[in-house]
Fold this protein.
Amino acid sequence: MAGRTGKVEEVYGAKLRDFTTIGIGGAAERMIFPRSLQEVQEILKMEREEGREVRFLGAGSNLLVYDGGVRGTVLCLKKNMGKMLFSAGGSVVAEGGTMLPRFAVLCALSGLSGSEELAGIPGTVGGAMSMNAGAYGRFIGEIAEWVEIVDAEGRLHRLVAHNIGFAYREAALPVRGVIARVGFRLAPGVPDEVFARMKTLNEKRRATQPWGERTFGSTFRNPPNEKAGRLLEQAGMKGAREGDALFSEKHANFLINTGRATSAEALRLIVRGREQVRVMAGIDLALEVKLWGDFDA
Ligand SMILES: Cc1cc2nc3c(=O)[nH]c(=O)nc-3n(C[C@H](O)[C@H](O)[C@H](O)COP(=O)(O)OP(=O)(O)OC[C@H]3O[C@@H](n4cnc5c(N)ncnc54)[C@H](O)[C@@H]3O)c2cc1C
């Protein structure tokens, strides 16, 4: 496929298990790795004209992909769209594929504070903005000034962040499409102090969550005034497994791939966990992880 900027980088039949942190998932019919905003616009316009379905992929850290794979095109920003631009007054612009840990470290090195809580989230700026990811009392939506989205026709929209309704793990984006770039405003900070806070929070994370495991992080969202992990634990799901899929012994809301877990095993464990919590507490847990593919087939 050729764009105005030359041939775009594309792969047919790539296994999505290599692009998700849990290491599960079949082939994507086609994957494209755009290098610029202009390429993103051209690709989406062309895919719309050709009538192909398009999905957006960041770091695959909040995804469970079906072993049968997905049809259509997967647009992945992580590989080639991770550039950042720093300007005076705490303004930072990051492309949608920028990894949050790198974002936080570069902000700290530039004497900026406000993103250290996000340093331990292994996702991209685009993926995080799409669901208002957050940790330790900080949500990414709070530090954003504007969000640039390319819609299905390839049109670029710049949205002012304070007009977007952000809530726990939710961003009510009025335009559907790929988050290509985000503008942030951060406060001045002393690098040593910012790094010290980052270190403290990362140590806290290591102490309470599985570390270095293949996982997609939290399986379920926390219900109001409750913790999904605590409910799963009380329902006896800590350490429960289906094949190679396991609810972590350290944090029951983290589903881990201990070997060659299949998407069916992971889904069976999720369904079991939800059912046990419903029976025990009468609470319907909502999924935080996103599912891709034909799980009903
Ligand atoms: C060990 C671990 C710890 C975690 N800790 C946290 C935590 O503390 N807090 C938290 O909130 N999350 C946490 N997560 C979950 C995950 O990292 C976040 O949800 C992250 O924001 C997902 O970003 P991603 O780039 O990986 O998105 P992906 O998993 O690639 O995609 C997730 C969803 O976002 C969409 N998406 C991705 N990129 C874009 C884009 N550019 N434009 C539009 N839509 C897009 C996808 O289509 C998909 O629907 C954790 C995950 C792991 C594995």
